[in-house]
Fold this protein.
Amino acid sequence: MNRMKVAIDGPAGAGKSTVAKIVAERLGLLYIDTGAMYRAVALKAIQAGIDLSDQESLTRLAADLDIRLNPDGRQLRVVVNNQDVTDQIRSQQVTESVSQIATIPGVRAQLVKIQRRIAQTQGVVMDGRDIGTQVLPNAEVKIFLTASLQERAERRMQELAAKGEPVNLEELKNSIAKRDARDSQREFSPLCKAEDAHVIDSTSLSVSQVAEQIVELCKAHI
Ligand code: C5P
């Protein structure tokens, strides 16, 4: 069995999840979207009316939630306490709240524990902000995937437009920049490149070109 661990980190909207899914499929590894876990905690906190600065209650919430990714082999579904929240965790309200919750060390500790447990028994492609630095420091291949803010906002705008949710490009740029700043400047496990990560700037690359580069790096380790 292929037990390889691939860590893909980078700022919001750099294309991590799209590329990670392709790489996982090509190499027969499990894809784990760690951002979905932080989003699941944010969603449940909003639903429960918990103040987003109440660290103690949010840590308890994260510990009590039963978060499952890809349950029963259903790829890319996110289930929390037996409820499928795959679509709800992508709402704008969750997107705007999640980075505040992700600053809380107790919440991070709970989620990192689950992430490491998953990777202990199988090969994974895991994407997030702290995978190469904290969650899987021994990953065979580490990627830091970036793209210009303009490009990331344009891609996100196209995605939203395709879903019938038109947005203003400048507003989108501001919201992405704000989330990046919070993720990079937080005290615990900030978004940063692992020393041994390969940097890929996807600004002028296609999804398949990025995926191909990562697959080639991985093949050197098989
Ligand atoms: O990857 P995605 O954009 O869905 O992640 C949502 C948020 O979750 C990020 O902006 C960040 O605040 C948090 N996150 C994190 N560490 C991870 C993955 C996500 O702090 N490993």
Notes: The chain is about 50% helix and 15% strand.
